[in-house]
Amino acid sequence: MQKRVPSPGFALYFPYPIMTNLIDLTFHELEALIISLDEPPYRARQVWQWLWQKGCRDVAAMTDVSKSLRARLAEVATIIWPKVAREQVSADGTVKFLLALPDGEAVECVLIPERDHYTACLSTQVGCAMGCAFCATGMLGFRRNMTPGEMLGQVLVARWYLLDRGEPLLLRNLVFMGMGEPLLNYENLVQTLEALHHPQGLDFSSRRITISTAGVERHLLDLGRSGLCSLAISLHAPTQALRETIMPGAARLPLPELIALLAQYPLKPRERLTFEYLLLDGVNDSVEDARELVRLLSRLKAKVNLIAYNATPGLPYRPPSPERMFAFQETLKAKGLTTTLRKSKGADIAAACGQLRGECGDLGD
Ligand code: SAH
Ligand code: SF4
After folding, report:
1. Would you tell me how many other CB atoms lie within 10 Å of the CB of residue 261?
2. Is the pLDDT of residue 352 over 70?
3. How far is CA 246 from CA 64, 103, 176, 303, in A?
4. Pair 279, 320: CB distance under 8 Å
5. Whose C-alpha lies nearest to ligand 1, atom 18?
6. Residue 61's CB: how many other CB atoms inside 10 A?
7. Mutate-to-test residue for ligand 1 from 177, 317, 325, highest number of ligand atoms within 8 A of CB
8. Contacts for 266-273 with beta carbons within 8 Å, 24 or more apart?
9. Is the CB of 216 within 6 Å of ligand 2?
10. Distance between CA atoms of 349 and 90, rounded to whole angstroms?
C-alpha cells in the first residue's frame, strides 16, 4: 500500500498549529475529529454536506452547525481547495485549469463539454513514473502522489466553475485520465472514490467514473473487486516488443500477463473492458498491427477506443492520416471488435489527453 503523502493540510494527528484540511478526511476520520472535540458524531454529516454539497470553504460559514463546534473546528481545521492559477478556454468550450497545490507543485485538470453534460478529466499524481515515450506528463518524471483532498479538490473546482456561471449542464462524468498513474496512488485513489460516492456528498455513481491505467499488476484486480468505477486500459501496442519501446514502465508487466490478469477482472453483466489505443503514425497503426490487436483481445470481453495522437512539442510522434486510421478501425470492425474513434477536445489549449504537464513555470504568466 502506498503511503498517503502528508500535505500541509493533512495533519489530524499532528500538534497544532498544523491544520487538518477537512477535504482530505474520510467520513469516518471527520467523525473521529468531531468526537475528539467533544461533539456528538452525527454532526459529521452536517459538516460533510457543507464540504461536498454546498462547496463551503470556510468553517465559520457553516451556519446550521452550532457556534461552539464551528469555533472548535476552526482552531484545528481548515478547508483548502487547490488554487486556480490559470484557466484557459478552448474554442470547443473545453476548460483547462492549472491548479497550484499548497507545496508549490501544480497539476492540470480539464472540464469537457458533452452533448448533455460535462466530463472532468482528473489528475492523480504530480508527474508520472511510467515514462511513456509519447506522453507530456511522462516527460516530467514522478514528483509525488496527490492527496485525496487534492484529487477531490479538482472536482470541487470544476463543479463550482459551472455553478458560478449558471451553466445549466451538470458535471456528470469523471475520468481519471489526467496526469499520473492512478494505480500507483491506490490508497488515496480508493479514499477519493469512496468520498465521490458518498450519498450525503457529491453522490457520483460508479457508472459515471472511469479510471484509466497503463496496466499495473498491483491493485488492478482490487480495483475491479471494489466496484467503485469502470476501467480503461491504455494498451497502445499489440505486442510486448512494441510496448517495451513506447511504454517502458508499463511493459514491465509483460503483455501476456496483463491479458491473463484482465481475463480475471470482475465485470458486471453486459460490461466490457475498455482498451485505449493511441494511433501513432508509422509506429503502431498498420493493418498488421490491427490484426495482431484482434488476436490479442480475442479471449476477452473487450471494446477498443482508438485515439488519434495529439502532437506534443518535443516528442517525435504524429497522428496518422485519416485514411490510415479508418483502415485500422475497419480491420477491427471486420473481425467483430467493437471500436470507436475518439476525437480529442481542447487540443488548441493543450488540454487533450497526454498534453498535460502542470509545469510550475506556467504559474508566472
Ligand atoms: N496513466 C494513465 C492515465 C493518464 S493518461 C494511463 O496511462 O492510462 C490518459 C490517457 O492519455 C492514456 O490512454 C494515455 O496513453 C493517453 N495519452 C498520453 N499522451 C497522449 C497524447 N499525446 N495524445 C493522446 N493521448 C495521449
Ligand atoms: Fe503516465 Fe499515463 Fe502518461 Fe504513461 S500515458 S506516462 S502512464 S500519465
Report:
1. 16
2. no
3. 55, 32, 21, 22
4. yes
5. 354
6. 12
7. 177
8. 266/221, 266/224, 266/225, 266/227, 267/224, 267/301, 271/230, 271/301, 272/301, 272/302, 272/303, 272/338, 273/231, 273/233, 273/300, 273/301, 273/302, 273/303
9. no
10. 6
Which one of 130, 245, 247, 356 would you pick to mutate in the ligand 2 pocket, going by the greatest count of ligand atoms within 8 A of its CB?
130
Instruction: Please provide the size of the chain in residues.
Output: 365
Grid cell listed for 289: 498491427
pLDDT of residue 288: 98
Residue 265 has pLDDT above 50, yes or no: yes
Report the alpha-carbon distance of residue 60 to residue 158 in Å, rounded.
Answer: 23
3-class secondary-structure state, position 154: helix
Coil, strand or helix at 251: helix
Q: What residue owns the CA closest to ligand 2's atom 8?
A: 180
Give the alpha-carbon dihedral of 233, 238, 243, 249, to 10 degrees. 20
Query: Ligand 1: which residue has its CA nearest to atom 20?
Result: 354
Task: Report the C-alpha gap between 120 and 160 in whole angstroms.
Answer: 12
Concatenate the DSSP letters of all residues of 212-243 into one string: EES--STTHHHHHHHTSSEEEEE---SSHHHH
Q: What is the structure's pLDDT at 354? A: 62
The residue assigned the cell 474513434 is: 341
Buried b (16+ CB within 10 A) or exposed e, 117-135: ebbbbbbbbbbbebbbbbb
Q: Return d(Cα 348, Cα 330) in angstroms, integer.
A: 28
